[in-house]
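Continuing the series of single-chain predictions for the mutant panel. This is the parent chain; the variants come on the following pages.
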Amino acid sequence: MTWDRPTADCPVEVALAAISGRWATLVLRDLMRGPRSFSQLRAGQPSLSAKVLTERLESLVAQGLVSCSRSPGFPVRTSYSLTSKGLLLRPLLEQLYRTGEALLGEFPDH
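Parent structure:
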């Protein structure tokens, strides 16, 4: 069997697609700590624009990795949290972190 290119049903491609996109891993990391409001997520990444954060959150919600809940009243409060599917990414993100640490230790000038 040969593979010319990744397929949409390849488990590795599915996992990588879930964390792809600039800032996605950092948004997921912040949500691993528990539910967060938009402003809390924004405060955690000051150089992340509101537009890009909105795009990342919409993408993560569309993938079923993040849920968005709004409380009634004024002002409306929006909270984002990981779904059970999103929580499956924890071991992957932790391993990526450990790998990055090891690579930084091996190549300290980067």
